[in-house]
Design goal:
The complex is a heterodimer of chains A (122) and B (201). In chain A, strand 1 and strand 2 form a beta hairpin. Chain A is 57% helix and 10% strand. Chain A has 122 residues and is mainly α. Chain B is mainly alpha-helical and 201 residues long. Classes of the chains: A mainly alpha (122), B mainly alpha (201). The interface between A and B is large, with 30 and 48 residues.
Chain lengths: 122, 201
């Protein structure tokens, strides 16, 4: 019997059991990493559409959000545009966004009210 | 090439990087955490095959929670230990006894055949004794004496379900009642020993 058996009879047992745990093999690591990549891909899929909504979000917010956009779309259908002379109430942020030679045209091209906000010279 | 080239990066930071799409972070986290999860599951379950399934499942849950991880939450390692224990508990409750898989013997060129046999007998005896302990006591012993975690982390891992006051505390004593570890018949050289944890009230 070793010395450590006399001082702590369980020490040898714990050391023996600790030594028996094998490291993850390559197959297990590969499965875990495949899961990780899959989860990233799942999350990346909706994220890929973000630039489009991000591009719209700022002017939409500046114009008062989607309720205001709905009103603008109705106006656009009636042939009204906003641009070089922003109407009263347009947020200052939106005014900063527009340079002197640019205009904002709101076109309702979709019966389901999908808005396209295009920017260009009048 | 080892995954964990940036060993100083905290686990929580790596998890944030992973959530932001960094594939390198997943590799480092896997190399850093999967061995611990596997070891913990294997010690709780006594089965290598089941432990591997639990490890993959626990890591998958980590990947899925990554986007919602808050920096003020428990460390990912602590969270993983908790998830692993819960997954193991679910499996243990679905079976009555713990089969002892043939666990690969560690490569040890220095130990002779007799020493290896003795170590194997000791490991199997202890694993069997752990299997006879109640689940939470088993977890406490494994966390303290096999994973060698400090009491605060053990409390964080087990705290969610702990009843009553006091930290989980586990001690080793000989010749006491409780989950007993008796001499392995093949060797017969051990005194009667006992794994004893204080009852978690």
């Amino acid at each position: 019997m070793h010395d450590h058996d006399r001082s702590d009879p369980l020490k040898a047992h714990f050391e023996a059991l600790k030594a028996r745990v094998a490291e993850p093999d390559a197959a297990l690591l590969a499965r875990i990493l495949a899961d990780a990549e899959h989860e990233q891909a799942v999350r990346a899929a909706p994220a890929a559409r973000r630039p489009r909504s991000g591009w719209l979000a700022a002017p939409v917010r500046a114009l008062g959000g989607w309720p205001a956009m709905a009103g603008l779309a109705t106006a656009a259908l009636a042939g009204v545009w906003i641009g070089a002379a922003p109407p009263e109430g347009l947020a200052a942020a939106a005014q900063r966004m527009l340079d002197a030679n640019a205009a904002v045209l709101v076109i309702d091209v979709d019966p389901d009210a999908v808005f396209i906000l295009a920017e260009g010279p009048l | 090439m080892p995954f964990d080239d940036e060993s100083e990066t905290p686990d929580a930071a790596l998890l944030t990087l992973y959530a932001n799409g960094d594939p390198w972070a997943a590799r480092v986290l896997t190399e850093r955490l999967a061995p611990r999860v596997l070891a913990h599951a294997q010690r709780l379950l006594g089965s290598r095959a089941e432990a591997e399934e639990v490890t993959q499942d626990a890591m998958l849950r980590l990947w899925r929670i990554a986007p919602d991880w808050r920096v003020d939450e428990a460390a990912p390692r602590t969270w993983l230990y908790r998830v692993t224990a819960n997954l193991c508990t679910d499996r243990l409750r679905r079976r009555r006894s713990i089969p002892l898989d043939a666990v690969p013997e560690p490569a040890d060129g220095a130990a002779g055949p007799t020493a290896r046999l003795q170590d194997r007998a000791r490991a199997e005896a202890l694993q069997a004794a752990l299997g006879r302990l109640p689940e939470r006591q088993r977890q406490a012993v494994v966390l303290r004496h096999l994973e060698e975690l400090a009491n605060p982390e053990i409390a964080a891992i087990m705290g969610g379900e702990r009843r009553g006051g006091g930290k989980p505390r586990c001690t080793r004593q000989t010749c006491a009642d409780g989950g007993s570890l008796r001499p392995a018949p093949r060797t017969g050289i051990y005194r009667r020993c006992t794994i004893m944890t204080d009852p978690i009230r």
